[in-house]
Amino acid sequence: MLSYGRLLTKSSRTPVLTNATLNIAKRTKTLKYYPLLGQSYKNPKRIKEEAEQAALKAKMIESIKNGTYEEEKAEAERQSKFKVFLEEANKIYEKRNPVSMIKVLKDIRSELNNKQSNGLCFLNFNIATPINKINLKAQFNLAHDNGEVIKNKTLVLVSDLKEVSPTYAEDKESFHVAGVDVINQIMTGEFDVSGFERCYASASISSKLGSVAKLLGPLGLMPSAKRGTIGKDINEVIASNSSNLQRKIIIESEGPEFLKKVVQIGNVNSLSDVQILENVIAVRDGVNSTIEVHNTNNKKNQANLCSLTFECNKFEPAEIEYTRK
Questions:
Q1: Has the keyword Ribosomal protein been applied to this entry (predicted)?
Q2: What does the alpha-carbon distance between residue 169 and residue 175 come to, in Å, rounded to a whole number?
Q3: What are the Cα distances from residue 58, in Å, to 51, 63, 151?
Q4: What is the DSSP string of 219-282?
Q5: pTM for the whole thing?
Q6: What are phi and psi of 270, to 5 degrees?
């Protein structure tokens, strides 16, 4: 049986053992992060921050030695600005408040006379371009005539100029008929193809097109048998593709910016609501498909559609539904 003195002695030792344990635990942490004696304990988060700063300093010193400091600094600033730009683009997309196209058209028709509107409608695209240079051509076909008169300049490539019917060959405003010599000029940069809307080729010259594929492809001008822009009879190719419903949007930028693109949809006085909707869907899906293909092939240089609005003459633009992929 323990005496009162022994109990007192045992209880008085307990705090000493507890403090010793705490001191050992603290010293273990100290030794873990700062093995040298005499250094005080620091939070692991602070240690990580100091290590990152030291790594940045070492990298800066190395870039100064290599003479690339200014370039790396400019690139870091560019990346930082692009990050802010992306945040702004995402905010625009997230804050959209789309309304039903059926409701929009109903409101337009009910107020058409009061607003003294001519009924002409447009689709407005707000596109956030990527950090690096981009040059896309979104080509699509309208479901119905939108009343817009466009003269499409078409490049026709053949091995023999006599293959082309006089109907097309003599229409200098719409067609430019050329042979192998022009393909060589496209390669050297002497012949500018950026002003053409379409390009067709006869099967007899198709073997020569590979040399200019990298120049025609990005502009959407590379003839293809799959798309029906190459054939044995060049006149049939022209006739089958010369539709007044074909349209395109050029998405071109040297860096991050908000591009505004407008496409005429039609007139509510000449088209029904269903026809207007079908044109809207055709245009929206055409642009969406082009951006989606580009983003799939360019993971680090992606474009994004921030907003899509439908506008009728003398009416306020209305945001319509668009799902970004």
A1: yes
A2: 7
A3: 11, 9, 60
A4: GT----TTTT-EESSHHHHHHHH--TTEEEEEEEESSS-EEEEEEEEEETTTS-HHHHHHHHHH
A5: 0.61
A6: -115, -15
Could you tell me which residues are beta bridge partners of residue 202?
231
Domains in the chain and their CATH numbers? 42-95 (no CATH), 99-146+249-325 (3.30.190), 151-243 (3.40.50.790)
pLDDT band with cut points at 50, 70 and 90 for residue 262:
very high
List the beta bridge partners of residue 240: none
User: Does position 63 have pLDDT exceeding 80, yes or no?
Assistant: no
Residue 106 is given by DSSP the state H
SS3 call for 131: coil
Q: Specify the amino acid at residue 225.
A: A
Per DSSP, the residues of 80-100 read HHHHHHHHHHHHHHHT-----
The pLDDT of residue 176 is above 60: yes
- pLDDT per position as a tens digit, 263-299: 999 999 999 999 999 999 999 999 999 999 999 988 8
**Share of residues in the chain with pLDDT > 70 (%):** 84
Contact of 270 with 94, CB cutoff 8 Å: no
> Encoding tokens for residue 10?
């045992």
